[in-house]
Amino acid sequence: MTERPPLPPFTEETARRKVRAAEDAWNTRDPDVVALAYTEDCEWRNRDRFLHGRDEIRAFLREKWARELDYRLRKELWAWAGNRISVRFEYESRDRDGQWWRSYGNEQWEFADNGLMRRRYASINDVPISPSDRRIAR
């Protein structure tokens, strides 16, 4: 079984490391890299989409980053207990027409003993912004 430290139960320090590792992975915009953080049978809710397993996650992320160009993300630890972590996040991206967006949200994560995420539930809202309003640097 593959391990992905830090492993639960989380402390504040290990939860912060887990959040930073997730932020770094997502900012690669590489679906194959990001998908490795999840169990083979991971459950996701992303907005109004429900996904099951790494293959669906990979396909979703390919679709996402084909649509959300120049994507850049920040995550912040909100809470942790045992094998669970909650984060707040924001990301910026632009669409094919050049409109920039800032997306805000919260995620609830649950981890398997090996440190892979087995559940991810995300609620996300989008706000159009002008290029001059961007605040997440590359």
First-residue to last-residue Cα separation: 35 Å
Number of strands: 6
Tell me the CATH topology. Nuclear Transport Factor 2, Chain: A
Overall morphology: globular
Number of helices: 3
What topology, given as strand order, has the largest sheet?
Answer: 2-1-6-5-4-3
> Helix and strand succession?
HHEEHEEEE
Largest sheet: 6 strands, mixed
Throw out a few tags for this protein.
single chain; 138 residues; alpha+beta; Nuclear Transport Factor 2, Chain: A; 6 strands; NTF2-like_dom_sf; DUF1348; DUF4440 domain-containing protein
Task: Give a quick precis of the structure.
The chain is α+β, with helices and mostly antiparallel strands. The chain is 25% helix and 45% strand.
Describe the structure.
This is DUF4440 domain-containing protein. The protein has 138 residues and is an alpha+beta fold. The protein has one domain (12-133): Roll (Nuclear Transport Factor 2, Chain: A), CATH 3.10.450. It has three helices and six strands, in the order ααββαββββ. Strands 2-1-6-5-4-3 form a six-stranded mixed sheet. A hairpin with a 2-residue loop joins strand 1 and strand 2. The longest helix is centred in the N-terminal third of the chain and has 15 residues, at 12-26. The radius of gyration is 15 Å and the shape is globular. The relative contact order is 0.21.
